[in-house]
Design goal:
The chain has 216 residues and is mainly alpha-helical. It contains ten helices and no strands. The longest helix has 28 residues.
Length: 216
């Protein structure tokens, strides 16, 4: 059991801490965390056959572009959106009908988020079926799964922020499904809702900020 634990620990540490075979003595034992982490994701040389576009169809690059689009449009939307229950929907309507190019920016943000989920899922499938998660890139697979979960959670908050009927029923159904998770279901549901029922604290959870009011 102890050897299995050591083996697992070694597999996790290996991508981060690689020894340089060209060094000797004490220098060979030195770890260069940042350097080896970068080389783990982007090695200096790769086999030419792995550079074919058809192996990935540009899914990773597409996901990165979508993340930048979401970040840029999200920053612009922050200037108009008001994260208060009785003003959130009104601010969205103001954005779409009163702000120049507001509807365009919101649509870009909306569709970028939806397409990002699809692209990320397809990229995850490609990695799995091509066996690209095998050592020494197993850490990439774990990081990719975590990023995919974060993408899903971010998309979930996107439905919540307009605070309209779609947002209300989306959060109701999703948090209702969470309740059935064994052991932590009820606790997780209350944490997501900010209480036993959907309330202004739910909106505050979806748009966290230090000055976010939680009362109407």
């Amino acid at each position: 059991m102890i050897s299995d634990h050591k083996s697992l620990t070694l597999r996790i540490r290996r991508p981060f801490f690689l020894k340089n075979p060209n060094r000797s003595g004490h220098q060979r034992d030195q770890r260069f965390l940042l350097k080896n982490l970068v080389l783990h994701f982007r090695p200096r040389t790769v086999p030419e056959r792995t550079l074919k576009f058809t192996l990935s169809w540009g899914l990773g690059g597409t996901a990165l572009v979508l993340v930048f689009l979401l970040a840029a449009t999200g920053v612009m939307l922050r200037f108009v959106y008001i994260p208060v229950p009785d003003q959130a929907y009104e601010s969205i309507q103001n954005l779409q009908h009163e702000i120049r190019f507001g509807q365009l920016i919101r649509n870009i943000h909306h569709w970028s988020g939806n397409v990002l989920v699809l692209v990320s899922f397809l990229h995850l499938l490609r990695i799995f079926f091509s066996g690209a998660f095998h050592p020494p890139r197993q850490l990439n697979w774990v990081i990719g799964i975590c990023l995919f979960v974060l993408i899903l959670m971010s998309n979930f908050t996107g439905y919540l922020l307009p605070w309209d009927q779609l947002a209300f029923w989306a959060i109701t159904i999703c948090t209702g499904m969470v309740e059935y998770i064994p052991g932590i279901g009820l606790w997780l549901q209350k944490m997501m809702r900010g209480g036993a029922e959907i309330n202004p604290a739910t909106l505050a959870n979806g748009y966290p900020r230090s000055d976010n009011p939680v009362s109407t």
